[in-house]
Write a structure and sequence with these properties.
By secondary structure, the chain is an alpha/beta fold. It is built from 20 helices and 15 strands. Among the domains are: about 80 residues, Gyrase A, domain 2; about 110 residues, no CATH class; about 180 residues, Orthogonal Bundle (Isoleucyl-tRNA Synthetase, Domain 1). The strands form four sheets. A five-stranded parallel sheet has the order 7-6-5-11-12, with helices on both faces. Strands 1-2-4-3 form a four-stranded antiparallel sheet. Helix 6 packs across helix 10 and helix 12 packs across helix 13. The structure holds one RNA strand.
RNA sequence: GGUCACGUAGCUCAGCUGGAUAGAGCAACUGCCUUCUAAGCAGUAGGUCGUGGGUUCGACUCCCGCCGCGACUACCA
């Protein structure tokens, strides 16, 4: 419709003012709620051409296009704004067409569909997941779903950071202080069990650094490099990379504990990957890449033996790619992983869902791969999202200052259980189904809370304030849908059938037009969300739609509408709304209960 | 020091490529359940959009300076 209007305006301008214009300069937008109309044309940009007052120009154009577009019922002019009202006929046709299309809004895949690899989650196997990881997982999963429904072949991959100095830290701490205890001894989830040793390592490390400074007056940076425990960890990493059997076995055992823990958390989150990569299996490729590049004179070697690349020509610094002791750093494995993935999937683009604290890392990664001659590296994209912060600042795993993911999920389920009991609406539900419903509600509250925020922005989470279940929340959206489901159930019970051949002999009210207009927007919303990688756009859209629906629901009855044609119209309308709600929630990774 | 983000109501956030009187939710206060589910609806109160300039018919939105907060600038990840 926008395009039809734009073309008509183009014609109008030609006819009225004898000027050719590009439709790109035209502004057609949805009319704001306070004004009467469906679409609004902003005439200010046309004033230079018409050389007339805004009102006059708007009237002339309005009259002209109302004549050539039969769907226009009438128009009004306020200031420089030309508001177009469409006829009932337009809307009822739109409604019926939409009702017929089960996949309204989604783009079908075809031979030209792009293959997109999306990496998210990427946990370290030395500590449990926290709220920051939740944002990562929710964003990654939602973006994957959004890209999938907008016509792309999406491959969700995880990269488990299961090797490196940080892993050795928790291994070393366990070796020193655990007395061979294992998670089941204390009935602790494996990832939490290992995480405790990571924290313990850091505590001891700090102690030793302070001690060194006090004893020898050492500079803090020097002390950090010389604390006995860090030297021991470095030694352990060398042993690991040299396949020392004892180290390797300990590593294997502890990783298993952590991964078993993660599996439970992923299950709770409802997140599944198409493929999981392990750093321990990809870092060697990275190492080989670096060594080859060195032989081809693309890299330099420092006197102590570390291999680095000089990126001065890119206004960047030198970047170490292999340590002096020959072990790999973080970027080494990422180089290898990228190459392996390109060989695996031959992707058109690759998205890394990783926090904005790693902007520099990915900038460097991309440049290095391009320098190595991989042309496809230009299609690597860092989807850089904002951090989740606590009121007192950044979360720090090492210091135990985190909102633990498992704890938070448990808390949400508890709250949902309590609220559900208070409201007493699920008392007749079978227990197992009730538990599932409660979990759906709890996870909706959590996921929506995180996804409704613009991904690019940092967000603050205050653990003192619990996550809401009222207002602009996941449960609010779910609730509106259960209202619709309930009406549709009642209609069935009363044997009210509704058909798709509408007979419009009544006047559609304003609320209904608003709803139709919101439904009309849905495909654009999906496209924009896909373009910007922003689930928040969908969350905010669905909230607006649901608010509009609730007002409609409050003001008008559907089943008690006496005119059967009108009742028919409303039933179709709300069924489409329910479809859109469910599809939107699905894209956010949220399930929709049928009763709550 | 350098690079990059961000700064909208007490709190958490919307505000599309510049467009009509800056919007929600939470918290506070007031109404509405013999009527399709009140996890709802309606209303009151709350703002010099960090600040000073510039571009424009028009700036929360674009450009520059300043202030504030943060991230990065590791042979950590």
């Amino acid at each position: 419709m926008e395009q039809i209007l734009k073309n008509a305006i183009q014609q109008a301008v030609k006819h009225l003012y004898n000027k050719e214009i590009d439709t790109n300069i035209l502004q057609v937008q949805r009319t704001k709620k306070e004004f009467q109309g469906d679409f609004t044309i902003v005439v200010f940009p046309l004033l230079k051409i018409s050389a007339k007052k805004p009102q006059e120009t708007a009237h002339e154009i309005g009259t002209f296009i109302a004549n050539i577009i039969p769907e226009i019922k009438n128009f009004n002019v306020i200031g420089g704004f030309l508001n177009i009202c469409l006829s009932q006929n337009f809307w009822s046709n739109f409604l019926q067409k939409t009702y017929r299309n089960e996949n309204y809004g989604t783009t079908e895949k075809n031979l030209n569909s792009k293959t997109i690899v999306i990496e998210f989650s990427s946990p370290n196997t030395n500590k449990p997941l926290h709220l920051g990881h939740l944002r990562n997982n929710f964003l990654g999963d939602a973006i994957a779903k959004i890209l999938d429904c907008t016509g792309n072949n999406v491959i969700k991959v995880n990269l488990v950071n299961d090797r490196g100095i940080h892993i050795c830290k928790s291994m070393l701490a366990w070796k020193k202080w655990a007395n061979n205890k294992i998670p089941t001894d204390n009935n602790i989830k494996g990832d939490h069990f290992v995480g405790n040793y990571y924290v313990a390592f850091d505590k001891e490390y700090k102690k030793q650094v302070d001690h060194l400074i006090a004893q020898t007056n050492m500079d803090i940076e020097v002390a950090k490099k010389n604390a006995p425990i860090i030297l021991e960890a470095q030694e352990m990493l060398q042993k690991w990379e040299n396949n020392d059997p004892e180290t390797y076995n300990l590593w294997k055992t502890m990783n298993k504990w952590v991964l078993e823990g993660f599996e439970k958390t992923y299950y709770q989150l409802g997140i599944i990957f198409d493929k999981t990569y392990y750093e321990s299996e990809t870092y060697m490729t990275g190492k080989e890449l670096v060594i080859n590049a060195l032989q081809n004179n693309m890299l330099e070697k420092s006197p102590d033996g570390a291999i680095f690349i000089d990126l001065k020509d890119q206004q960047l610094d030198q970047k170490i790619l292999l340590r002096a002791d020959g072990t790999s750093v973080y970027i080494t494995q990422d180089l290898g992983t990228a190459v392996i993935r390109y060989n695996d999937f031959n992707f058109d683009s690759h998205i890394y869902v990783v926090g904005n604290e790693q902007d520099y890392h990915f900038q460097v990664l991309k440049i290095i791969l391009q320098k190595f001659g991989y042309n496809w590296a230009k299609n690597l994209q860092h989807f850089s999202y904002g951090m989740v912060e606590l009121p007192e600042g950044k979360m720090k795993s090492r210091e135990g200052k985190v909102v633990d993911a498992d704890d938070l999920i448990d808390e949400m389920i508890q709250t949902a259980t309590q609220k559900t009991a208070e409201l007493g609406k699920l008392e007749n539900m079978e227990d197992q189904k009730k538990q599932l419903t409660i979990k759906m509600i709890a996870m909706a509250a959590l996921k929506y809370f995180i996804l409704k925020v613009d991904p690019k922005k940092n967000m603050i989470f205050n653990p003192e304030e619990s996550i809401d279940f009222n207002g602009n929340t996941g449960p609010f959206i779910q609730y509106a849908n259960t209202r619709i489901k309930s009406i549709l159930r009642n209609a069935k019970e009363k044997n009210i059938e509704y058909k798709n051949n509408l007979n419009i002999d009544f006047d559609i009210n304003n609320k209904e037009i608003n709803l139709l207009s919101a439904i009309y927007e849905f495909p654009n919303i999906l496209e924009e969300a896909a373009k910007k990688y922003s689930p928040a756009i969908i969350a905010n859209y669905i909230y607006e739609l649901v608010k509009e629906f609730n007002q409609f629901y409050h003001e008008y009855s559907i089943l008690n509408e006496e005119n059967p044609d009108y009742r028919n119209f409303r039933l179709i309308l709300i069924e489409i709304i329910s479809r859109i709600i469910e599809k939107s929630l699905f894209l956010l990774g949220i399930q929709a209960p049928d009763k709550m």
